[in-house]
Amino acid sequence: MRTLPRNSILSGDALLRLQSLPGGSVDCVVTSPPYFALRDYGVPGQLGAEADVQAWVTNLRSVLREIARVLVPGGTVWLNVGDSFSRGNRWGAEAKSLLLGPERLLVGLADDGWIVRNKIVWAKTNPMPSSVRDRLAMSWEPVFLLTRSRAYLFDLDAVRVPHSARAKGRGKPLAPGGGRPVWAGPLAGDQGGLEALKAQGLQGHPLGKNPGDVWRVATSNFRGAHFATFPEALVRPMVTAGCPIWTCSHCQRAWVRQPVQRSLGHLAVLGELRPGCGCRAERRPGVVLDPFLGAGTVAVVAEALGRDWVGIELNPAFVTLAHERLDAARQRQARKENNENGKEVMHG
Questions:
Q1: Who contacts 110 (Cβ-Cβ below 8 Å, separation ≥6)?
Q2: Which tens digits make up the pLDDT trace of 272-311?
Q3: Which residues have a Cβ under 8 Å from the Cβ of 51 and sit 6 or more positions away?
Q4: Across-strand partners of 248?
Q5: What are 90's strand-pairing partners?
Q6: How many CA atoms lie within 13 A of 128 on its CB side?
Q7: Which of 90, 254, 279, 339 could cross-link to 244 by cystine, CB 3.0-4.6 Å?
Q8: Rg for the chain (alpha carbons), in Å?
């Protein structure tokens, strides 16, 4: 039986390497594949060098089908993709038109059985300057949150953010007794949870508010050879919310967080993690996969958050670069721990 090579970088084509991994072995996927026709990474067979945008979509859908196979039933995929402008019909759209690569891909993935849970806006606080005069400068990219199952791990409490101000009454009237608004259509949400919090005199959840789907994050300041590096600040909430801290070593079910039952004064505390199964087997860290690892950001963030990881990278130079970044991050962490231990000895 094949085993997952945890904390390893697999060199080679993403699709072929994914086919070598065991099914149902990965808890979470965080990745940013090469965008269509925007960069040449200098490797034959690279994704993004297809003849037109539809071929790019087709190839990425093939990769996502393999990801569906290796993902655990309750796993999540966080997929960052970007768009580009056509220079003529042969690319897949009229000249000067957006190719709509992310939208074409998302419709195809929905057809393939993926459940699209979010379209997150990565709003870049330091976007690339643009001299274009007949359209607006592009300053954001989408991140799609995808699942294969209606029930999946999502640790919202671990990524909540502080409430910005006391909530004020606003909006349209609710139905008598709270719940669905009187104007609600068949797909409108239920506001019963918000009403229950207000009834307790709370402005919102004691651990903070849902961070929402607009994330304001600067592009990476990494100055290595890889010129499209994932920002660590963008990856961190994806891994935190989507990859379990612990899983069962026998059945691979994730440990789950119990609901918050109490607060310590004004300080709310996270619920305790408990096994999500009755196996009583040893626990092991959750594992996140990046099949387009690049400079290794997902691996660096995963280690910092106590998760295991697996990376796949086609370009040998980037494999070396990722190893160097991991080594540097581990050395920084070791120095930090040594300094903290030294302080404890001094004050002991």
A1: 116
A2: 999 999 999 999 999 999 999 999 999 999 999 999 999 9
A3: 90
A4: 283
A5: none
A6: 9
A7: 254
A8: 22
